[in-house]
Amino acid sequence: TVCSAPLQPYVTLSEDSTLHQAAQLMIKHRTDACIVEFNHSEIGIVTSTDILKLIADQQSDFQSLALGGLATKPVQTVHEFDYLFNALLKMTRFQVDRLVVRTDNGYKGFLHQKDLMSLFANQSGLILLKVDQAQSIADLIVLGEQVDGLIGNLNRKGIKTHYIAKLVNELHRKMMHKLVEFLLPNHLADKVCIFVMGSEGRSEQVIRTDQDNALIYSDNLTETEHNELDQFASNFISSLQQLGFPLCPGDIMLSNVNWRMSQTDFAQKITDWFKHPSEENFMHAAILFDAEAVYGQEKWLSKLKQTLLLEKEHYSNFLRHFAVPILRFKTPIGFFGGLVSDSESGDEVIDIKKGGIFSIVHGVRCYALEAGIEKTNTHWRIKALMDAGVFNNEFGIELGETLNFLNTLRLESMLHQLANGVALPDNKIRLSELSHMQQDLLKQSFGVVDEFKKRIRHHFALDELL
User: Residues 149-200: pLDDT tens digits?
Assistant: First the structure.
């Protein structure tokens, strides 16, 4: 947790204090930031970087400037009992070098990026947080390779897989955002919304397995702008491929005109999914429900999701049909609780995604859609369903831990495959690579999955559809 990390002293001054006083206080306490207290309990922050900028600008009499007009607001904070990974994610998301650490009763210090990163893998982590400094696609390719190294380091340190996934996906999104800045003409910046879907949208993809992305554009593009957007789409997808994101086998990418549409056409597309229900359309609705924006007009994506939720209300049987794919794959556990595996090149293997992960992810997605929960990450959805009373605490915690264990086995298998030269690792785990304890835990996990599937089958009355 944050309280276990080294913190810089918490120093404060009023908004009427001068910059000179702030500099003296920072030197005295050997810190590089000072909190500025305003009326009504509001706070801002002045850092040593702010002081250096004023010196560089050769602003006259800057030492006597009042802090109230210099402080940056709002201040990004983190609770002392929050996880260090969440602190790192916040620094990455808001592109800040420090967070103010808060307690239940106030504030206690500054958590600095350099101190935080020293607790993690290695100095490459510091480079990863500087995606915004990249000058070319070649720079991003190097950063992508370092992300892969960071994944292995964090896994070896025993960091939970869903924390690794949250960090990695935050970094991937920063890389994508930077890539868009490189490739998209400036005059189109406020005329598009680019978003990721599926496991990327849920912040659950660790090893880059494929792309799932789309683009909404303004209804009022000119013919020239359409042509520019076509060229951008082609360049963006090929560049993502260079960064290590394989093409989507189902062509769910913004280079496909079916996933690059105007606001009006995209909304109509969603309506058509409900008017003409099919397994493919249900899958499309599922991955869109998981979408998160990475660039541009985020409100356009929010509006699309609202359209999806509204259309769902008009079709009473939608959720029942939406839930049916959960029963597509059998849970690989026998009548007496033993593991059921397939033989492949002399190995006993289990497809852990089909056997367990998909059922939890899609099952939780169904409950979240029914409850109108807009969070995308499966763990966040489970927590929201617990808060709403849909899942009791014991069941919700068990389901979350089961998902994390299955994802950990999947990640370790993929890392092992990559180490053995496999270019695109699959979702299969080899039982020979698991310890006896891991195999026992896997049996228990599949038992939880099976019970969850029974619960879904009953809740959505799926037997009537089969």
Answer: 888 888 887 888 988 898 888 889 989 999 999 999 999 999 999 999 999 9
Predicted pLDDT at 43 = 92
Show the beta-strand stretches assigned E in 367-449. Answer: 428-430
DSSP-assigned beta bridge partners for residue 422: none
Does some domain include residue 395? yes
Q: Which residues contact 256 (CB under 8 A, 6 or more apart)?
A: none
CA dist., res. 98 & res. 110, Å (int): 6
Judgement on whether residues 222 and 293 belong to the same structural domain of the protein: yes
- What range does the domain containing 269 cover? 124-315
The alpha carbon of 413 is separated from its chain's Cα centroid by a whole number of angstroms, namely 21
What is the pTM assigned to this prediction?
Answer: 0.78
What does the pLDDT look like over 278-333, one tens digit per residue? 889 988 999 999 999 999 999 999 999 999 989 888 887 888 889 999 988 999 99
Residues with Cβ < 8 Å from 171, sequence gap 6 or more? 92, 128, 131, 143, 147
Q: How far is CA 234 from the centre of its chain?
A: 24
Number of domains in the chain: 3
Is 216 in a helix, a strand, or coil?
A: strand
Residue 90 has pLDDT above 90, yes or no: no
Helix or strand holding residue 346 (H, E): none
Dihedral angle, C-alpha 35, 41, 42, 43, nearest 10 ° = 10
Nearest Cα neighbor of 176 from 204, 215, 149 is 215
> By three-state DSSP, how is residue 9 classified?
coil
Report the CATH number that the domain containing residue 409 is assigned in CATH: 1.20.120
User: Which of 284, 315, 346 is at the close of a domain?
Assistant: 315
In a domain, 87, yes or no: yes
> What are the tokens at 388?
């709403």
Contacts of 329 by beta carbon, 8 Å cutoff, 6+ apart: 351, 354, 355, 358, 359
Q: How many beta carbons lie within 10 A of that of residue 243, not counting itself?
A: 18
Q: What is the DSSP string of 138-156?
A: HHHHHHHHHHHHHHHHHHH
3-state secondary structure of 66: strand
